[in-house]
């Protein structure tokens, strides 16, 4: 039987998972988004006339599973709205920080090689169902299965060194998807980047497996347990600050103020798209906004569970500090920093 505190946390994460699923697959897809996706699949063209590329890999059956993601996210990478690109950078750095934290916790609890499949499966499910649903569900499962003992440290130096290497690669990995925001790219290259980035959970797992089988200790004899978390925390915080600074730069172009730009980046709008071509990009942007909001709500409680045992201050003060940090640094950075601080203070 679950302890009352564990039950309350599990209920909270379960409610967030339900809310996240509803927001992603009902609220974000209103105003004709589903019909627009069906129309693009039928005509092989987007509303603005851009062709849909249907081959991304040598495997046709796999390509058919990737088309929906390409249709959904295509409009966010064309550079027409800076708010789209700024949120993409922030969200995907947050996703990679979260993926690394799940990888590290899995390897700490289950150090045998087959356990690498666990974060891989969570990552793939996230690609198809959305972070606002999947990551609260992950925290729910962790809470129910392990209670508050779900956060062990990595005691194997070989695994920890590999995690540091994976953290570095994980920080770079979003560029494989986001490079069209910074480099002029043709339509085919942009769409292939969207499709192939769906394999990022598998890539991260392979990098971790390779790191555990390469003698990294010859280069770095030892690293602290907090090192992998610090790497992804710095990257996620930098991406979040990039989005905020981007909003500040955009505010120099009237009539958009910085406050309005931040609202456009992070908060869903109640207004309907005026142009048919904007329906899909608006839906995808709102989808990612809900991801960030739900992750912030999930991670603030998770971070409190991590820090409460090692910080001799009141719970309300920890949560208030985490809220401020979440706004300033982003949810991914706060989650990773909480892990790093937990292991640093426990040493």
Describe the structure.
With 347 residues, the protein is mostly helical. The protein has one domain. 70% of the residues lie in helices and 0% in strands. The longest helix is centred in the last third of the chain and has 29 residues. It is globular, with a radius of gyration of 20 Å. The two termini are 32 Å apart. The mean pLDDT is 89. Keywords: Membrane, Transmembrane, Transmembrane helix.
Notable characteristics:
transmembrane, membrane, transmembrane helix, mainly alpha
Query: Main beta sheet, described?
Result: none
**Helicity, as a percent range:** 55-70%
Distance between the termini: 32 Å
Order of helices and strands: HHHHHHHHHHHHHHH
The rough form would be described as globular
Number of helices: 15
Compute the CA-based radius of gyration: 20 Å
What is the tally of beta strands?
0
Question: Would you tell me the overall average pLDDT?
Answer: 89
Portion of residues in beta strands equals: under 5%
Structural classification: mainly alpha
Low-confidence stretches: none
Number of structurally distinct domains: 1
In short:
The chain crosses the membrane at residues 6-24, 116-139, 159-183, 195-211, 231-252, 292-311, 317-345. The protein has helices spanning 4-27, 33-43, 60-73, 82-109, 117-129, 131-146, 157-172, 175-178, 187-196, 200-212, 227-250, 258-266, 279-307, 315-329, 331-346.
